[in-house]
């Protein structure tokens, strides 16, 4: 049992099973309807059941695979990665309020991409520019999300 508790798949499977169970139980508070006339609770109900099933598969995989030399936490913490990935959404909020969706998307992706220890400034900037152009086109022109593409100040 001690070796089992050191497996990542064991904990991941339990977490996904728990999440699927919570989603399934919460979806029953809405009207499910029928398959022909679905109610607002049908999609989360089906999603919760699928999550639970996937969690069971992950859990079973963790039980069946032999224990290798794996650790739950890495040898050394990746503080740069943590800081960049957590700063990305904060930059999106800040730059979105001040400068619009284009600047918010660029800074969020750029800062988050720098969390990878092998990332370069140039590679992160190219990635951020590509996602900004694609996201700006998709959300502003195709989906018409009411978030200004460009803005200056509050």
Computed structural class: mainly alpha
- The dominant shape is flat
Poorly predicted ranges: none
**What multimeric state do the chains show?**
single chain
- The residue fraction in helices comes out at 55-70%
In N-to-C order, the SSE pattern is: HHHHH
**How many β strands by DSSP?**
0
**Rg (C-alpha, Å):** 21 Å
What separation lies between the terminal Cα atoms? 57 Å
Specify the biggest β-sheet: none
> What is the mean predicted local confidence, pLDDT?
87
Strand content: under 5%
Number of helices: 5
Description:
The protein has 154 residues and is mainly alpha-helical. The protein contains 5 helices and no strands. It has helices at residues 8-27, 42-64, 79-99, 101-113, 121-142. Helix 1 packs antiparallel against helix 2 (42-64), helix 3 packs antiparallel against helix 4 and helix 4 runs antiparallel to helix 5 (121-142). The protein is flat, with a radius of gyration of 21 Å. The termini are far apart. The model has no long low-confidence stretch (mean pLDDT 87).
């Amino acid at each position: 049992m001690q070796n089992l508790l050191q497996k990542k798949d064991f904990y991941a499977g339990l977490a996904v099973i728990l999440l699927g169970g919570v989603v399934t139980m919460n979806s029953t508070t809405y009207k499910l309807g029928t398959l022909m006339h679905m109610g607002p609770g049908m999609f989360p109900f089906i999603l919760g059941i699928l999550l639970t099933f996937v969690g069971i598969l992950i859990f079973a995989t963790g039980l069946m695979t032999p224990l290798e030399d794996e650790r739950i936490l890495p040898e050394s913490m990746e503080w740069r990665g943590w800081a960049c990935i957590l700063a990305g959404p904060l930059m999106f909020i800040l730059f979105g309020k001040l400068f619009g969706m284009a600047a918010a998307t660029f800074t969020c992706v750029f800062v988050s991409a720098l969390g990878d220890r092998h990332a370069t400034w140039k590679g992160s900037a190219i990635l951020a520019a590509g996602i900004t152009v694609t996201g700006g086109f998709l959300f502003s022109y195709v989906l018409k999300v009411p978030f200004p593409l460009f803005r200056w100040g509050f």
